[in-house]
Prior knowledge:
Layout: E1 6-11, H1 15-26, E2 31-35, E3 48-49, H2 51-60, H3 63-69, E4 72-74, E5 76-78, E6 83-85, H4 86-89, E7 96-98, H5 101-114, E8 118-121, E9 124-129, E10 135-140, E11 142-153, H6 160-164, E12 170-172, E13 176-184, E14 192-198, E15 203-209, E16 215-222, H7 235-245, H8 248-252, E17 257-258, E18 263-266, E19 269-271, E20 276-277, E21 280-282, E22 288-289, H9 297-311, H10 318-348, H11 352-367, H12 375-378, H13 386-392
Parallel strand pairs: 1-2, 1-11, 2-8, 5-14, 11-21
Antiparallel strand pairs: 3-7, 4-7, 5-6, 9-10, 10-11, 12-19, 13-16, 13-17, 13-18, 14-15, 15-16, 19-22, 20-21
Helix pairs in contact: 1-5, 1-9, 2-9, 9-10
Amino acid sequence: MAAPSYDIITVGGGIAASSLARAMAERGARVLVLEREKQFKDRVRGEAIMSWGVAEANELGICRLLQEKCAHDVPYVEAGSGLRDLRATTLHRLPLLSFPHQVMQETLLAAAESAGAEVRRGVSVEQIESGGEPAVVVKGNGHERISARLVVAADGRGSAARKWTGFPVCEQSNAYYIAGVLLTNVHTSTDTMCAVFNPDLGTWTGLIPQAGGQFRSYFVYPKSTGYRLQGESMLSLFVHESAKGYPPIADYCAAAKSIGPLASFDASDTWVEHPYRDGVALLGDAAATSDPTYGQGLSFALRGARVFRDELTPNSDWDAAGHRYAEQHQRSFHACHAVEGWIRTLFQDSSPESAALRAKALPLIAQDPRRVPDHIFSGPGLPVNEQVRARFFGEC
Ligand SMILES: Cc1cc2nc3c(=O)[nH]c(=O)nc-3n(C[C@H](O)[C@H](O)[C@H](O)COP(=O)(O)OP(=O)(O)OC[C@H]3O[C@@H](n4cnc5c(N)ncnc54)[C@H](O)[C@@H]3O)c2cc1C
């Protein structure tokens, strides 16, 4: 049989696929990126990479590129109890980076192409065949079957590739929706992200500055309210409800105008325990779609690309490398997933049981804020164990 024309095919050209494609093309691999969209548009997605993800972007050599083309440094976080300087208090001593998602995607895909990857746009992958020589069936002008040493499916939340390849999908249903919209004419600091839980209402309000005076505004609210915040006509309700959760929003957004769609999503988590088998790997949201409230998806996409790059050396057994990537993904996903669950229980859940937990834990946290595990900003490298949990809940 003829050798495949490519070492790696990626299904999708989002942050996960293009970061890996760039990194591997730079190391001499023959990479093909297949992306459905001819041009990316504002889709209400993640637009803030937490400090630990910025460290991963540095490792991948794309941090400066993002800063030159579209990213804005956000050094401070206001979580309702005073400003935190991320440059002084996170494990990697880094700010977070924010950007318009679609500009970031165009930037990274262009970078993958410059590094030598072949990028085809406006083509849709319709099937993946796993096995010793995995392949994709792609629809562009007609249908084409293309094989590679490795197929990396990075086709985002709701990944069809998971189903085609029969990966069992785990799901944790969370009781919240997240809505988002891009705003201009917001009057607040451009170096501070607001990220405030309101446990009385079960909400989270987020406001993240970007370059050029834009702000990405998010609001997480219980599904039990019975409505979805979507479309232009719901904008005033979106701002009103966000301000109930965090009152300063009313002033910040008094004259705000939307410059993109208002859309909402189910905040449930879905993931695959071991996202590699038989020549096919899942990367980014396809491997694990985590509750967007915690803003971990972009960082996990970058971490996955970096881990894979480090494993896929020219002389390594790529099947074994795929399994090592999957094991590392599983460990780091579960570390952050556990901490997200603890934070949701203590800071967001409005049930009487959680109120009782807060009565015990919050006075101790006020005395020593380091009781709050910092995985959201500092990443899965921090320990996660019973002692960390018990300290957070004020049990010791
Ligand atoms: C409301 C909301 C807020 C969020 N906030 C944050 C945040 O603040 N911080 C954070 O880190 N994360 C956040 N996230 C998560 C973040 O957006 C995702 O984790 C990240 O975009 C995943 O990147 P990806 O490359 O895996 O997938 P995507 O960005 O979805 O890219 C997948 C690509 O694959 C293409 N594609 C799909 N199917 C096919 C096919 N069959 N053939 C060819 N191409 C295909 C798509 O067109 C797309 O370009 C948020 C998510 C949501 C929904």
